[in-house]
Amino acid sequence: MSLTVLFDLDDTLLENDIQPFIQRYFELLANTLAESISPQQFLQAMQHAVYAMLQKQMPAGTLENTFDQVFYPALGVSKQSLKEKIDDFYRTKFPLLKELTRPRSTAIRLIECAFERGWQVVIATNPLFPRTAIELRLAWAGLPVDQYPYSLVTTYENSHFCKPHPAYFAEILAVLRWPQMPAAMVGNSWEDDILPAEKLGLPTFFLSEQNQPENSASRNPLSKTGALEDVLAWLDTIAQQDGVPSYDGIAAILATLQSTPAALETFSSAFPEELWNQRPEPKEWCFTEILCHLRDVDREVNQERIEMVLKENRPFLPAAMTDGWVEARNCIFENGRTALDGFISARSEILQKLINLNEKDWQRPARHAIFGPTTLKELVGFVATHDRIHINQAWQTIQALT
Predict the structure, then answer these.
(1) Which of 18, 15, 9, 25 has the alpha carbon at shortest distance from 93?
(2) Could you tell me which CATH number the domain at 250-401 has?
(3) Which end of the chain is more exposed for a tag (fewer CB within 10 A), N or C?
(4) Which is the CATH superfamily of the domain at 4-12+102-239?
């Protein structure tokens, strides 16, 4: 049976008390840079940069971009000026932290069994670290990336959101093209791993020797609490389920909208720009046309509808026939990068309107020309479904041309 399974890393696959680890990590890095930057200045800049990553809710830019925009200006230096020292730190000093960690034989066997079953395996560790730091910790866990074909390892270079935002988990699934199979999350942190994954709609396995928290009543009925030794049998049960998780809760809908521009930016990073305006088949859209379609629908349909529902009492929403816009507007001749930036901007405007709404706001009524009586939640849910369709279309277009 097919399954996409997301595993946390620290204190899940690798024994690692993360708070003492991070404290020692920052101390070593501060000492490495002490000749040019005082440890106090370094720690303040690091705290502000990490806070910025933790607070990020808009899709523009990776977490690395967010970190760089805060950290280096706070130090008054350029990233390039510290690159040699930081690279040397990860080669020579960061490996010293291995002594604070221990591999877990049960975790190694669990991952091996997952691959033996043909499952998609994601290392869903909080992407506040660069790739080098995460890959080293996987090696310390006995699970190196050169020996295990992970579908994705989240790092601050390839992620736009972090835990505990549901958008972090939505971005993973979007990058994997919203797999049409069961999916699940395994982790040891109730706040970072379990709650946000549950909000997205995933069943979860909470690694804990204690009873689950009192606020666990809303968990997926398939979810479980237990020890690492119990995870494989639970995953076998999840893999036998029919269908895919339901991503129809408010948090899941919002997370999907956040994740779509992020995933498309990730797709684009490895796609040669000279191919963006090339169609895989004469009657199929090119990558740029897909971006233009998403941008224009957000700008000219979705934004207006959301504003009407929020401002008016049961407004009438006329139908919008948008597929013909791509041809009529000659989108194939547009600059793809500009179209992507335009989509990210338009989507961010929508997210700003939605992100702080309460439950009552989401239930505001409207009348749709085709769907009849509806609510804001249902309308935005249609946008999320539309997003998932075009994520797959974009990926298929890229695959056909590369």
Answers:
(1) 25
(2) 1.20.120.450
(3) C
(4) HAD superfamily/HAD-like (3.40.50.1000)
